[in-house]
Amino acid sequence: MKRVLITGCLGQIGSELTLRLREENGRDSVIATDIRHVAGNEVIESGPFEILDVTNKARMMVLARKYEVDTIIHLAALLSAVAEEKPQLAWDLNMGGLVNALEVARELDLKFFTPSSIGSFGPGTPAVNTPQDTLQRPTTMYGVTKVSGELLCDYYYQKFGVDTRGVRFPGLISYKTEPGGGTTDYAVDIYYEAIKHKSYTSFIAPGTYMDMMYMPDAIDAIIKLMKAEPSQLVHRNAFNITAMSFEPEQIAASIRKFIPDFEMKYDVDPVRQQIADSWPDSLDTTCARNEWDFNPQYDLDKMTKDMLEKLTNKLKNDTVVRH
Ligand code: SER
């Protein structure tokens, strides 16, 4: 991973991964790409940036050759709730982008990472301690693209020898970039509202357990998996990973440890609730721990403390900039 092309660099994962890799390996170690340019954006300003629509394979190839990258980290995709609103676009973008990125990796012999998700599971999957290898019949377009992506990555490894790797991410919680259109996003929104209004109206019902992880652990996981010796890997793609499993009342209780008068209300969104109900409660991460030493550091309270501190500072600075 000496020089990496990242797609979707302005997204929730991309923005933090780009900055972290540049910090560790230098500004030119990442060619950051996204479909849009945002003036003054920290990620764009911190090193090489190019506009890239991932459905344009020719341009992706031109950029990969121009910068002589050795790795593609393909992150551009629509998340679950948006994908349910625009299923055809989700298929075209999530699958079209992935197959293009895999083709570029195959032709140029590049290492490859792309994330799958808890969304790749469906109502028929064992919900508790969900095994690494199990039934996957998702009922969302997002899930359909994620399972297909897992299979495609395995295929490119087996058929063409492309060094594909990946994880199934749970809901990711971060303060730098706001996520867009995910079902697990309630667990991010809640921190913003807790700081601003000491109150949050959740679109996910109490009692709905989902796996979650704090972004620093997610970034560590990507880097660790990419560095793992191939001989250690029994699986290659779609490793189950998670750091915690909670339901809305538990994250509210964690916030109350720091903001005692925080109030939780509910106005359930049937679309996102149905998606959440079709996903597992808690994944078994044994394979990731054994094969490449996956070892997350943040539990719910440690994450809450850090989120509230960092977000409070961020919101203060945003106000200062705006005035
Ligand atoms: N966080 C994602 C979503 O909610 C799941 O991978 O769509």
From TrEMBL:
MF annotations from Gene Ontology: L-threonine 3-dehydrogenase activity
One of the GO BP terms on file: L-threonine catabolic process
InterPro entries listed in its UniProt record: Epimerase_deHydtase, NAD(P)-bd_dom_sf, NAD(P)_epim/dehydratase
The NAD-dependent epimerase/dehydratase domain, residue ranges: 4-241
Domain of life: Bacteria
Family note: Belongs to the NAD(P)-dependent epimerase/dehydratase family.
Protein name: L-threonine 3-dehydrogenase
Native species: Listeria booriae
